[in-house]
Amino acid sequence: MKKLGLASSAIIVALLALVFLTPLSSAAHAQSAAAPSGSITQPVTGTAANGSTFNGVYTITRFAQSNGQLTAIGTLSGTLTNALGQTVGTVTNVPVQIPVTPATTAVCSVLHLNLGPLDLNLLGLVVHLNTVVLDITAVPGSGNLLGNLLCSVTHLLDNGGPLTGIVNLLNQILAHL
Predict the structure, then answer these.
(1) What is the Cα–Cα distance from 55 to 57, expressed in whole angstroms?
(2) What's the whole-model pTM score?
(3) DSSP-derived 3-state class of residue 57
């Protein structure tokens, strides 16, 4: 096994940044047969501007909270090859911690109000209002305090709300006692 030089290491880091900044596909969540139990394996591939390529796997073994953000903790293994297809270096079970972020920001529907035409006669003052449609949506995300709050509140009682999750967790804990 060759040791990686500074340039090769920089390319691997750059490729990892490119790969992990893109959303994961549904196939990426499939568990590999080679992965240890209780882990998920994600293929990692990338190509540098000079034609070098990296092919490997990232095995997520656990999740943790780091500086208030959810992170995936695991190991990276793979091979770096140059544009001619020659192996430049390999990495095996290198510890890697990557922040987990959602691929898209969901929008929560807070209110949809559809009023038909309205005619009022107030002591000789006639008011006519045509159809009015009012849609209010909330966008959750970093810095969107009101959007986060309203998205949480609008779905609070759906399917039993958080109580269902709490009951399931308590039952799982109870089963292990």
Answers:
(1) 7
(2) 0.42
(3) strand
